[in-house]
């Protein structure tokens, strides 16, 4: 790279430089909107492998080694294909990496992917963790995909995951969050809890009688084409939730809810949602945890953006109460000031959002 940026998350122009210098290798030219303010969308390749089970390659194996043992069927994606609910697929991605020894990466589902309850993770060769790419990695990337609620239609070039690049070592800290929040509030809340991140709570009361507090996915519904926007009727796929104050999560049901707080990410930082307490295993929240610089900030025209929460209960029913803490945001600096931020004329789908389903659905009218 032409210069040595400071430690931190790489903004879009640094990601562009990484493409030019061969740190990011694409088997076909990048899409015009593929580089986001602090991440790169990853595209599905030409084939998908249906496999018997999810797997971790481990330090002595490549993903291809495992595919030779576990693959059941090869699916051509060049003209689109259906991925069925409950099945596990491995898809080689069109992007591979040749990272320097001071650059690592972390992946996450895109926001729209999480809101469709598509369980997806990125795997690197010899990996010991999902969604983590160590410093100095040189090799291919793969997506593990398992639709949980809706069957999905995908094709070569569909984008379900995103990846962030971290230059050097910068760890999230409460000290940083206190400083940023003192300069300008990071969340709109009277009582702010900062402990291993800034707390977000669930909103089950403030939308008014004419607006649902959430949506519950229907168990048996139609196909979702992941590349078509605003094409689907909400009520064909979702049941609105109208009750106020508390909600019983049914086991293995999928819910879209919203945070009580509006969230702000300064243009000089990026954020990620993490579980507020890993010991509470009754439910999972927010499959898609990346928040770009400028989300909910005036710099991107987005003051007042809520965090939309993708929630799934596990083995037992679990009661959520209005105002209950459900996740925490951690913040990291960018390695350089960004040239673009979320919502700044780049087609961002979720700036100024309240309770919002994925971009695939038409607006809900109660």
Q: Could you walk me through the main structural features you see in this protein, from its secondary elements to its overall organization?
A:
The structure is a single chain. By secondary structure, the chain is mostly beta strands. It folds into 2 domains: 8-167, Deoxyuridine triphosphatase (dUTPase) (Deoxyuridine 5'-Triphosphate Nucleotidohydrolase, Chain A, Distorted Sandwich); 174-333, Deoxyuridine 5'-Triphosphate Nucleotidohydrolase, Chain A (Distorted Sandwich), CATH 2.70.40.10. The protein contains 4 helices and 26 strands. The protein has helices at 12-20, 63-70, 111-115, 174-183, and strands at 8-9, 24-26, 35-36, 39-43, 47-51, 71-76, 81-83, 88-98, 103-109, 118-124, 132-133, 138-147, 152-154, 159-167, 198-201, 214-217, 224-225, 238-241, 246-249, 254-263, 269-274, 283-285, 290-291, 305-313, 318-321, 325-333. Strand 3 (35-36) and strand 4 form a beta hairpin. The relative contact order is 0.18.
